[in-house]
Amino acid sequence: MMPHEQKTIYDLRGLKCPLPVLKTRKRMESLAPGALIEIETTDPLAVIDIPHFCNEDGHRLEEATPVAGGHRFLIRKKA
What we know:
The chain is α+β, with helices and mostly antiparallel strands and about 80 residues long.
């Protein structure tokens, strides 16, 4: 991530599988190619589901970070 880059922040805490992936996919439809989205989730399965979603849809998982009660993911939309 470049210092001047904007990112969309999407709070998906409290949602259970498959909602974090479904809502992320839907939200990313409105983003420009190459845009960044940061999602935060408390679903323990997200550590499996989000990287799989990125791989399947061609997005790049820039970062996956454990946070209190869950995980934060930084995803770059495919160009």
